[in-house]
Amino acid sequence: MADIIQLLPDHVANQIAAGEVVQRPASVVKELLENAIDAGADTIKLIIKDAGKILVQVIDNGKGMSTTDARLSFERHATSKIRNAEDLFQLHTKGFRGEALASIAAIAHVELKTKQEHDDIGHVIVIEGSKVASQEVVVTPTGTSVSVKNLFFNIPARRNFLKSDTVELRHVIDEFHRVALAHPNISFAMYNNGSESFNLPISNYRQRIVNIFGNKTNEKLVPVEEDTEVLKVSGFVGKPEFAKKTRGEQYFFVNNRFIKSAYLNHAIASAFEGLLKNGTHASYFLNLTVDPQTIDINIHPTKTEIKFDDEHTLYALLRSAVKHSLGQFNIAPVLDFERDPNLDTPYSYKGDASNTPKVEIDRSFNPFQEETHSRAKAVSYKKEATENWEGLYVGLESKGNTSEQDFEEVHFESEECTASIFDDNQVEQKNTTYQLHNKYIVNTIKSGMLVIDQHRAHQRILYEDFLKNITIKKAASQQLLFPLQLHFSKQDIEIINQLKDDLEHTGFVFSDVKEESSVAITGVPVSVPESEVSIILEQLISDVENEVPDSNFSATDLLAKSMAKSLAIKTGQSLQKDEQEHLVNKLFACKEPNVSPTNRTTFITMSVDELDKKFI
Ligand code: ADP
Ligand code: MG
């Protein structure tokens, strides 16, 4: 048989490589910004059109390229940054694969203008889908400008796969933040569709963070500084009281390169142990400097993952450094900096958030009521019953899955129910509800019983309420005595602006949305406590960022979902009888009572027949 193996032509190989390197406009932004930094620029400008789908341009004042280099830079594996494999372990540059420009040129229209300082005149090269369209001389300032137009013009499937402009722009801004935060000694500007989004002068690290995230950030930052033989840490963590519901502001840089590391993130979380409200995440902006020989960045083409030789030590040092700072700045009461770092290696249980013991109060309890009597009686009945059950249970342990502990819990939690079961006067009463494990509402119905997930059910109720209010535009609003002034980053304000109309229809009243960084709220929906407003808006912003609302309709839907999620009664919340009944009634008045807004089951029923079967 004839030979069938062929070498792929370069442009095909480049397109394949592009799939790895370029997923979206933000990937182009990252590669171009990093090249500009590697070229030693101290002023870098990023220009974006239509979230980068039409244009991503990066202009730098770095060292530029010679004619030959300019041409060569588009070849695959063409790099000036490493010469042999050993260099991989001595990396001081961002790039090293020599893949980015070749990949980008395979899937877009690229124009490169570049001039070196000692030359009078520069060069411009136009490349479209890996083919050089033109190469000429041009008058241009020292440095390099790379324009990438019409990304994925020759791969329609990839182009269609791109998300809405809002989402793609969000990714672009994220990349821009990461690079700008890693290099406060370089001035960055970003322009989006002709208007300036960021202008970040050369500054110290604190100022850079403040310039990006808004003036209010300044008071949140606690400096972290630690210098050991293996690791140098510098940067800031956010004070615990400013912790966010979302993981937005968490940045690790290793040797000035943004990385993601769940392991190191855990080190920070454990340093904050006991200081954060449940469900919130600390902010951090930390630069780690380690010997380049002790890390391997070569594991992923997009290079946000990294391998450390000695992760355990880094974990311990980082945790101690953060704890030390929190202690020093009087934020954490205990300081255990002297502790042997080896003791600090994480065990799985360390990640578990601490549980505050919950005190439950029966608000309806009145010692002078008749009920006292029956309650006391019930308790004694119950004891008896338990003993009997335990008698039955002996010897059966190995058969059932139910552990003894489960049994105990059931008795404890359903005490009130036991009371009513054994109270002769109430035996006849129909349609009673009770709460199980502060999670489910159990209700008797004609055919048997109904078990409702309180959190999901309430989400459904609120969701339909919000949707209705938004559509009929007549929600009630409660006026605040003092306007609530909330601070957000510039992009977050942009999102609030987009959702402003819908938010107002739910009952919010905004007196002022400043472009800069703050929102003044003078009215809130009646169902929303003032203290929850910032959490709700924060959750909403993060949902919008993550969920891609493509149309107006889906933005409204998302808003209703997000607010319902934030405001719904939580699992673990104890409810009074009338609250339980109200919830059941409201749920069944909904259009789609059987699923939550995210399509999860809200209730199940169990018929007496089914129960009977279980007792065979
Ligand atoms: P890498 O950055 O991995 O080396 P790239 O494909 O991103 O690979 O770039 C190829 C080469 O082109 C670089 O090694 C560098 O020599 C040159 N280059 C790219 N961008 C610039 C720039 N903005 N200024 C100067 N040289 C550049
Ligand atoms: Mg590069």
Automatic annotation (TrEMBL):
UniProt-recorded name of the protein: DNA mismatch repair protein MutL
**Which CDD domains does the record cross-reference, listed alphabetically?**
HATPase_MutL-MLH-PMS-like, MutL_Trans
Outline what the protein does.
This protein is involved in the repair of mismatches in DNA. It is required for dam-dependent methyl-directed DNA mismatch repair. May act as a 'molecular matchmaker', a protein that promotes the formation of a stable complex between two or more DNA-binding proteins in an ATP-dependent manner without itself being part of a final effector complex.
Which UniProt key words apply to this protein?
DNA damage, DNA repair, Endonuclease, Hydrolase, Nuclease
* Organism, scientific name: Flaviramulus aquimarinus
Lineage, uppermost ranks: Bacteria, Pseudomonadati, Bacteroidota, Flavobacteriia, Flavobacteriales
Q: Which GO terms describe its molecular function?
A: endonuclease activity
Does this entry carry the keyword Membrane? no
The chain positions of domain DNA mismatch repair protein S5 read 209-327
Give start and end of each MutL C-terminal dimerisation domain.
432-575
Which gene underlies this protein?
A: mutL
- Write out the similarity annotation: Belongs to the DNA mismatch repair MutL/HexB family.
HAMAP family attached to this UniProt entry: DNA_mis_repair
Q: Acetylation as a keyword? A: no
